[in-house]
DNA sequence: TTAAACTTTCAAAAATTATTGAAAATTAAT
DNA sequence: ATTAATTTTCAATAATTTTTGAAAGTTTAA
């Protein structure tokens, strides 16, 4: 496989994965080309490389910046804006995990806590509801805590060791 | 908050979370009502409770069965089919993780391995491509391994302890 | 301050995904 | 074998999401 084929394969796979994760294709693909590019790219570069419109590029770059995984840079003496992605994969994983926890897991945990807190009238239906939503609450809370700890900036001895042992 | 309000809130939150995770709303909501129901439900019950069509219920029940988190049961002497969900949250998490790993992470890992294996012509572009896709490969592989180990059926001493320590 | 270079916004169009509903298929009892 | 109960399939429709493109907005330099 030569470079261009590999690049296309990578970009389209990254786009497809994004789609499965609720991130739109253009956003994931823009991230992909920035991630593998040794130099920052302009909006024009991105539009051309992916064959997408200016509006699309602009909006998705904004989203990527909101996620904290793409930065805008200005080259002195140049009018155009350049974009580059977070290059450290650990940091990338951390940002994504953080964002997903904030947007998805935490709101869900909040609702699970609320609804599992109702008082039961003693019926089987209500007892079961409370029991099951409590169990989900515990699961989600554990998962979220672990996600945050494992990904946390300061990797402590335990987690570092753990990664080695588990892998 | 009384039971019906709590139930609706739970069902709709579960549906919304599913959507964010690339699982359609009906599928997630069907799972939700089965999960909190003390008894198995018929397709009719599900259609009525969620206000969805027969075709929709049928297809999404099939998907849930493919995911291994809903089972069909037949009551002796009854024509109708009943459905019940996996009730053990640990098992639920395990099945979901397994399915996602199989459908999403593993195919991605495969592509990353392929594309990072090309031979470079020595240019900065190609060197960077190989370096970055290799890093992603390592990250995805580590994440997948950990996911599988932590969720694995036979929780060993290390993981059990770990969950306690991290939480 | 004007003009050129560039970016953002957003209504409309296109593409994708989910849902319906009715016909076809299946199942089980008579 | 026929019928009635039930489920599945799938083409058509509806809903949602993404993308476009051009007008409006910004920024910088002269």
Structure description:
With 167 residues, the first copy, chain A, is mainly alpha-helical. Chain A has two domains: 83 residues, Orthogonal Bundle (Arc Repressor Mutant, subunit A), CATH 1.10.10; 78 residues. In chain A, α1 packs across α2, α2 crosses α4 and α5 runs antiparallel to α6. The two termini of chain A are 29 Å apart. Chains A and B meet through α1, α5, α6 and α7 of A and α1, α5, α6 and α7 of B. Chain A binds a DNA duplex (30 and 30 nucleotides) through α4.
In short:
The first copy, chain A, has 7 helices and 3 strands; from the N terminus they run H-H-E-H-H-E-E-H-H-H. By secondary structure, the first copy, chain A, is mainly alpha-helical.
Give the helix/strand layout:
Two copies of one chain form a homodimer.
Chain A: H1 3-20, H2 25-36, E1 41-42, H3 43-50, H4 54-66, E2 70-74, E3 81-85, H5 89-116, H6 124-151, H7 157-166
Antiparallel strand pairs in A: 1-3, 2-3
Helix pairs in contact in A: 1-2, 2-4, 5-6
Chain A binds a DNA duplex (30 and 30 nucleotides) through residues 24-26, 43-44, 52-56, 58-59, 62, 79-81.
Descriptors for this entry?
three-stranded antiparallel sheet, 70% helix, homodimer, 7 helices, 2 domains
Query: What is the CATH superfamily label of the largest domain in chain A?
Result: Winged helix-like DNA-binding domain superfamily/Winged helix DNA-binding domain
Give the fraction of residues assigned to helices of chain A: over 70%
User: Residue ranges of chain A: pLDDT <50 for 5 or more in a row?
Assistant: none
Shape of chain A: elongated
Structural class of chain A: mainly alpha
Oligomer: homodimer
């Amino acid at each position: 496989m030569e470079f261009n084929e590999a690049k296309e394969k990578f970009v389209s796979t990254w786009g497809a994965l994004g789609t499965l994760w609720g991130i739109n294709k253009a956003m994931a693909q823009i991230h992909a080309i920035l991630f593998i590019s040794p130099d920052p790219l302009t909006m024009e570069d991105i539009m051309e490389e992916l064959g997408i419109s200016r509006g699309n590029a602009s909006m998705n770059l904004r989203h990527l910046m909101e996620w904290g995984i793409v930065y805008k840079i200005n080259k002195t003496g140049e009018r155009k804006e350049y974009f580059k992605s977070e290059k450290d994969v650990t940091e990338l994983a951390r940002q994504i995990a953080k964002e997903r926890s904030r947007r998805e897991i935490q709101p869900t945990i909040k609702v699970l806590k609320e609804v599992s807190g109702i008082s039961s009238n003693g019926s089987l239906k209500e007892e079961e509801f409370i029991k099951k939503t409590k169990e989900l609450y515990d699961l989600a809370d554990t998962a979220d805590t672990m996600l945050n700890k494992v990904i946390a900036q300061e990797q402590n001895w335990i987690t570092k060791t753990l990664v080695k042992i588990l892998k």
